[in-house]
Design goal:
The complex is a heterodimer of chains A (159) and B (420). With 159 residues, chain A is of the alpha+beta class. Chain A has a single domain (3-155), classed as Alpha-Beta Plaits (2-Layer Sandwich). In chain A, strands 1-8 form a two-stranded antiparallel ribbon. Chain A has a two-stranded antiparallel sheet with strand order 2-3. Chain A has a two-stranded antiparallel ribbon with strand order 4-5. Chain A has helices at residues 17-27, 60-64, 91-95, 121-125, 142-151; strands at 3-7, 38-42, 47-51, 70-72, 79-81, 102-104, 109-111, 131-135. Chain B is of the alpha/beta class and 420 residues long. Chain B is built from eleven helices and 26 strands. Chain B has helices at 10-22, 44-48, 64-67, 127-136, 150-161, 182-194, 290-304, 379-386, 394-400, 405-413, 416-419, and strands at residues 2-6, 27-32, 70-74, 77-81, 86-89, 94-96, 99-102, 106-108, 121-123, 142-146, 165-169, 198-200, 205-211, 214-219, 224-227, 229-232, 236-238, 254-255, 267-269, 274-277, 284-285, 317-322, 325-331, 341-346, 351-357, 366-372. In chain B, the strands form seven sheets. In chain B, strands 3-2-1-7-19 form a five-stranded parallel β-sheet. Chain B has a five-stranded parallel β-sheet with strand order 9-16-10-11-12. In chain B, strands 22-23-26-25-24 form a five-stranded antiparallel β-sheet, sandwiched between helices. In chain B, helix 1 (10-22) runs parallel beside helix 7 (290-304). Chain B is globular. Classes of the chains: A alpha+beta (159), B alpha/beta (420). The interface between A and B is large, with 48 and 64 residues.
């Protein structure tokens, strides 16, 4: 069964355990600034919102890459960056309309969520179930993903 | 059904792959005229600093086309006969098509100045150009770069990393005038000058002359710069010459409708050679950027494969890394008359962000943006512009602090405000 990350801002307390877990998994160090899941803070509303790549079907990043450095992992469905192939041209970072592929100056390459190979650390670290790893068919998951996708004109083909 | 795609850049390759995915049994021939597998010009700057080998510029792995049953043909197409539905090749043979996609891209303009044909004057466009530059741009070589547009600026870093002695000559009043406004272009120039690059804006090259010790590059202000290598990067033009007598309607590029169809039946055009729809203006222009070429390729291919796909316009957008200073621009970055602006400008830190809003019922919709010195979440600028999200009270928050753009996006798309 294909699983998906489910993000629920209403349950997020802004503890940043997800960012710690993500950076520790990827870099071996606690460095939230390099986490590919980010928690956004809304002081005015007293809200927090975890946010990362939805592994969207359109895969704007994958299609934009000029050197085939972003591919789909068939097991997890994640779109993953092949570091050896990425030249750091950054075209994917402006192509992703969700802003979830970022250029990392330290490495000269781009970074995005790869779902930790199908066992995302952020979901395991979240103490309030704001981030869960659930069956893709479960209701609610598509809210964040559907919003921008349906409104983007280049996706509007009847094919 | 035989589909022929002329041109093996990103637009042509995506077209071929999309046809294959849609119609597994159709015959597909992809024609490229360079002696290499399909490659990406976007990757050439990284080849110039030895980050990658030539294989690293290839668009796809070498067995990809075979696996996809796409026949890749290295040949020069010299013309098309729309009545006979054939392409004519330089060896005198012809190939019959049912559907044709022209994806022949663009080539650098050769400015009309004396000396532009000298042996050590090169453009930077093809793998062959890159090989020439690699052999001539040695440490301490004197290099003059003509043109500080997108291509000029993207190879500028490679030249500096090769430790050449670099001078950049730009006709316009600032660097990258077609992508960056005055503040952004000004920051970029200061960044380069601070790094030891000679940047001369509002300056033209009058002539290039051979000299005993290299070349003399004569400027319109009377100055004379010594050069071992001159790189000409003064713009590109669509490759339409080979079809000029074909009956195709051509302006700057081949004219197409919103299905990427030309005026002739069963002939499509995509990428730098096509005058496609601009998302922001609805006008048909040659954008000559890679993401647009792949948009076009996909739309044309779906129609060629019998589907109905309409193009709603591609957003003009660019990202540029010049000696580590990253700049982006999107859509109507120069703004619209009567539209509001949100701006943060901190020149001492080389930070700049300018957001442009629309007018009337789009007064709270982002229509364009420029950034300097930002790498995080820049894609949402595209997302906000293309999805025409009404920012509501977030517009004022952005005017107060444009750096909150990602907050604005997340809040607007996750309906946080409704939860409160």
């Amino acid at each position: 069964m294909q699983k998906s990350l489910h993000l629920d801002p209403a349950k997020c307390t802004g503890c940043l355990q997800c960012e710690m877990a993500c950076s520790y998994e990827k870099l071996g160090e606690f460095n939230p600034s390099r986490s590919v899941i980010k928690v956004f803070t809304f002081h005015e509303e007293g809200r927090f919102a975890p946010y990362t790549c939805t592994q969207c079907d359109e895969a704007w990043c994958l299609r934009a890459c000029p050197v085939d450095a972003i591919t789909m992992d068939l097991t997890s469905g994640a779109k993953i960056v092949i570091d050896d192939k990425c030249v750091g041209c950054k075209v994917c970072t402006i192509s992703c309309p969700f802003g979830t592929v970022n250029y990392v100056q330290e490495t000269g390459k781009v970074a995005k969520c790869d779902l930790c190979g199908g066992d995302p650390e952020c979901a395991k670290a979240c103490p309030t179930d704001a981030i869960t790893w659930i069956d893709a068919n479960a209701t609610g998951y598509d809210r964040m993903k559907a919003f921008a996708e349906k409104s983007l004109p280049s996706a509007n083909t009847s094919a | 059904m035989h589909h022929i795609i002329i041109g093996a850049g990103p637009g042509g390759v995506v077209a071929a792959e999309t046809i294959r995915k849609t119609n597994p049994n159709d015959q597909i021939t992809l024609i490229g005229n360079e002696p290499a597998p399909p490659y990406s010009r976007m990757a050439i700057p990284y080849l110039l600093v030895d980050d990658i080998k030539e294989e690293g510029t290839f668009l796809r792995s070498s067995d990809h086309y075979h696996q996809q049953s796409i026949e890749y043909l290295q040949a020069n197409v010299t013309g098309i006969d729309a009545d006979a539905k054939t392409c004519e090749l330089s060896d005198g043979s012809s190939l019959a098509y049912d559907q044709l996609c022209i994806a022949t891209g663009s080539t650098p303009i050769s400015p009309p100045i004396n000396g532009i044909d000298l042996p050590n004057v090169h453009s930077c466009w093809t793998l062959e150009d890159a090989r020439q530059i690699l052999s001539l741009a040695k440490p301490q070589s004197r290099v003059v770069l003509m043109g500080a547009g997108f291509i000029g600026c993207i190879i500028l870093e490679s030249l500096v990393k090769r430790k050449v002695n670099l001078s950049v000559i730009e006709m316009g009043s600032r660097m990258v005038p077609r992508m960056l406004d005055e503040k952004a272009g000004g920051l970029l120039k200061k960044w380069c000058v601070d790094d030891g690059v000679g940047v001369y804006t509002s300056t033209k090259v009058n002539a290039i002359e051979e000299a005993d010790d290299g070349m003399n590059v004569i400027l319109d202000n009377g100055a004379n710069i010594k050069a071992d290598l001159v790189i000409s990067a003064t713009g590109v033009k669509s490759n339409t010459t080979f079809v000029k007598d074909s009956g195709l309607d051509i302006d700057h590029g081949i004219l197409v409708n919103n299905k990427m169809q030309t005026n002739l039946p069963n002939i499509y055009a995509v990428g730098d050679v096509a005058q496609g729809m601009d998302f922001s203006t609805g006008e048909y222009t040659v954008q000559a950027i890679q993401p647009t070429a792949t948009d076009h390729g996909r739309i044309a291919a779906l129609n060629m494969a019998g589907k109905n796909a309409e193009h709603s316009g591609s957003l003009n957008m660019n990202i540029l890394d010049t000696l580590g200073l990253i700049s982006t621009s999107y859509g109507l970055w120069m703004g619209v008359e009567g539209g509001d602006t949100a701006e943060i400008y901190t020149p001492e830190l080389f930070k700049y962000m300018n957001l442009r809003f629309g007018i009337n019922d789009e007064a709270d919709v982002l229509v364009g943006a420029t950034t300097i010195g930002m790498t995080e979440h820049v894609g949402v600028l595209r997302g906000l512009i293309e999805s025409k999200v009404h920012l509501g009270h977030w517009k004022q928050r952005l005017i107060d602090d444009p750096m909150r753009i990602m907050d604005a996006y997340v809040a607007s798309t996750q309906e946080l405000d409704n939860v409160v």
